[in-house]
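[Q] Does anyone have a clean structure-token version of this?
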Amino acid sequence: MTHPAFQTLLREFRVLHSTEPALQAFCDLPEVLAPQEVIPHRIPAAALMEEDPNLSALPSTAALRDAFIAASPQAQWRETYKGTRMGDDFMQRFACYCLIGGGGPFAAPEMGAYVVYMPPGLYYPFHHHPAEEIYYILAGEAEFLMDGAAPKTLGAGTHVFHPSNRPHATQTHDTPFMALVLWRGNMGVKPVLTYPEGDR
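[A] Here you go.
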């Protein structure tokens, strides 16, 4: 049986999706999602997100922010870059878990949904993946960089789209941020670092 915290999380995601044109344009949210067993896996950054007092949200995004935090103890937190050149600081402070997709409580063949959290002063280097992606900011603020585009600083209620295999990066400065991240298209390939030896 799906944990009640995940049921609440899905309900709040449906509410935001139903009222936010950018999310609706990116993908449909299936009426029925296949439940999956979640094997909880905790990482140090989970506690950073749960205890962060500076995740300022809008009235329209606060409920989903809070639902992601409430479901955190039950989540299978991801370690996508384990074994790569990413240092301990990044691995200790970058946080992501899945709501719809691999390791999440629900599955859908046409989309994936995740939460990403970064505390202040963290850089997520340039990376890419075949899946198309949208970041919808739920709380806080971050700077988004993408090859061929000017940097953008975005806060709650705004979004950025990453085309397939377009290298992109994220930098937090004085504030943390939390985002709902959606994938579509070729979702079978994990993100990889664009410049394994370091950004150029």
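[Q] Thanks! Anything notable?
[A] The first helix runs from residue 4 to 19.
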